[in-house]
Amino acid sequence: MAITTPVHHDAPVRHELPGVGEARAYWVDESTLAWPADMFPAMVDAHSLGVRATEETEPRMPVTFGLVTAPEGGARIVDGILDRGPGGTEIPLAIVGSLEDLLGEEAMAAVPALRGYLALSLEDEFGGRSVEREDITLLLAGQLAVVQRTAASTGGWITAFTGVQTWPLLDHLYADAAARDGSAPLGASIGPDGVPTFSLWAPTAVDVALLAWPTGDPTGCAPLIDADPIRVPADRVDAGSWDGRWKVGGPAATAAGIDAGSQYLWEVRVYVPATGRVETNLVTDPYSRALTVDSRRSVVVDLGQRALKPSSWRENLSPVVANDAARAIYELHVRDFSAADASVPEQLRGTYGAFAVVSDGTRHLRSLAAAGIDTLHLLPTFDFCSVPEDRAAQRAPHIPRDASPASRRPQAAITAVADQDAYNWGYDPWHWLVPEGSYAREGRQDGGARVYEFREMVGAIHGMGLQVVLDQVFNHTGASGQEAHSVLDRIVPGYYHRLDAAGNVEMSTCCNNIATEHRMAERLMIDACVSWVVDYRVDGFRFDLMGYHSLETMARLRDALAQVADDAVGHSIYLYGEGWNMGEVANNALFTQATQGQAGLLGIGTFNDRVRDAVHGRSDDTDPRVPQGLGNGELTEPNGFDDRSEETKRADLAWRTDLVRLALAGNLRDFELPGSHGQWARGEEIRYGDEPAAYGLVPTDSINYVDAHDDETLFDRLAYKLPLHTPMAERIRMNTLCLATVTLGQSPCFWAAGTELLRSKSLDTDSYNSGDHFNAIDWTGQDNGWGRGLPPASRNFDAWVVQAGILMREDLRPTAADIATARQQALDLLRLRRSSQLFSLGSAALIRERVSFPTGDFDAPGLVVMLIDDGAGDSDIDPDLDGLLVVINPAPGTVEQRVDALVDRYFELSDIQLEGADPVVKGTRFYANTGAITIPGRTVAVLYER
Hints:
Helix 11 (519-536) runs parallel beside helix 12 (551-568), helix 15 (714-721) crosses helix 16 (728-743) and helix 16 packs parallel to helix 20 (816-835). The strands form twelve sheets. This protein has an eight-stranded parallel β-barrel. It has a seven-stranded mixed β-barrel with strand order 1-2-9-8-5-10-11. The protein is of the alpha+beta class. It starts with 24 loop residues before the first strand and ends with a strand.
């Protein structure tokens, strides 16, 4: 902050010093610190310091700087005077100009947030040479601060005092030596002789020791040992120069009796800026491969033991998906899958083990796989903070049985125990390399036992013909600082989390943001993903808020996975994520982000919110009933709550229709759409707010979806937006139509679990902590979840009045027959997608060549006609077909549309739909002599040309 000139007073007036309680300075390399220019006035006004100007004291004075070091902490300003603390010193710093001029553009690229900062140098104090590494190591182990003063000749008044962020220096000094490529071991590794070696990266620690509890169980499945630990001091790893790692080697472990299966903690003595002193932290290993219940201790585990390899995992190989553009992804939460499944043994409900038994749930997954789903996306399964793993500590809500569909009582009961029950989505990471223990069956949560359980699940899913994708969360942690669930910050304070200019942890993800642009944070992310592939044989990853990671980090991750993929699973690893542009990293502020339109350069897909919003009419309005979209009645069946003019709604629906057409064509930025007035527009020329509507270079850049675990389910969105009098049969048709907009396109399609069963969460907009009551799935199709009460107030209260009126309508509760109809129609969509390679051409060139939206005198709002022509190029993609026609009519009534480009071509309804679950679609007609199509209302039809 700038120091301003106050009004003159007769007596001195003291002002709070800039920077106190913050960390606004940065240590960048061996001899350079960065100082914010707004805290450095070239000359300081004496009155702003509360100093009366005299003949000896000019009103404006020069300033000097010093680096304050306090090995035990305690440096502070008391009544305007510097107290250096016990053993503290001050090292003069010289101003040497701007940081950019001193470091150069290449070095500044690593610290772009420091552009405009001043450079302060330590070199004068050390005889003009760079400071020795040993000196820096000692300084980094204590408190660091920078003090700014007026020159001694003018009184030496302190004008600013602030802490120092050291992460740039830690990256500069230690990260390359610590082998960001993973070749320098971290965590507990077992040698050929079966003896463990322990390594921890803690470059700012005063000292480190290992606390261990031998168990005598080589699988590490023993429960928590109640005994005094063995304490073994750790040594610094000396590989020519110290790389920041501490090690307890094999001989030391052998001498202490520490072996495979032992439980352990790290004892780290480290200066903690938040407390202002050196703390002794007992902390689990961030590279833990196994844990005891509730993550109390890390466990040494040899993952290569046969005893930890279930037969299903050994024998069921990963299925191969030959064409990523053809992928059909099903998103599922482990506990949702079986918590309410009575066909699963009670002790397995809500666990990994539920995937390995014959049940209603596994039969349903197999039916999805048979129809065309090929990838199962599991919500977070790494160790997270928010669910007690000890079953005895879990609390269950007492849901009143007589509650009405709009009662407040169920949500109140759930809220009362929400943080102690068995339910959470798990987006609050604790340990990234270990399976979550609350999903292991009771008594199988310690050490290698949960490893076995997780592998058993993966083997079972592979046996169903499905690949396994894990939801990964490396953009934040569940805790930071000295909090109980904090690991990283209690080992290397201030390094792993992204800090703002004042030294506070950034929280734009609603949690403690991780800085994966820092080299060892990036390494942890990469090492974790490689471990899941090598040690558990998973097939891909979905990244939460992927835009918080740099394109460079994602490229290194992709390359690291490519090196292990063939041996581990026999195919390339599939990657996609949320490419939202948000937070402190938005608009490439700190690095080139892995966002929509940028991640695709690496072959990494991003969720396409354009088609989602086109179908739903999503907006930021407070009334969830408006605006409608293409999939729920905009213009074609108004619900009466949108007071915009018909002209405005017509234009809006035309725009949303273009978004759907672009998604069907792979969301390619250079795909051209015909307009209503004979003009053509490229996908990137059509707008989506301030951004291009289409951002893909290839069709796999876009993951097309209309619902996911976030926000309301598809059925609930339809409940909000369709007119309340809309019959259930028509709601089912719109459910199918909405799914068709993403299933019948050229990009990977993504379904939320239960969407084919009309799944409802009783209008809950964010069910991450809403318990089994609102989240559990009934695979028998008897109950879709509608009307279980008003959803939790914390995320829904503003909509309760609207929600209550809707939830009370019993005609919105589907019957078992309704759910069965929806399921069969949805499965038909998957069968259609798999019926021809024309639905997944796989390249931008083929899509531009073969996919078109033939024009006509269209007067039917929202009508989509897509032609995929197999005769348009030199090659024959599908030898059985000359072309495909996809027609989507969202209007309630039958539409007849003439398309001149189709005259004298011969299309007939697909065999799948002729023999399928929907009798209405069978009324679709095509007339070759006129090129006219007749399609019933709220219908999606696929026609073949043979």
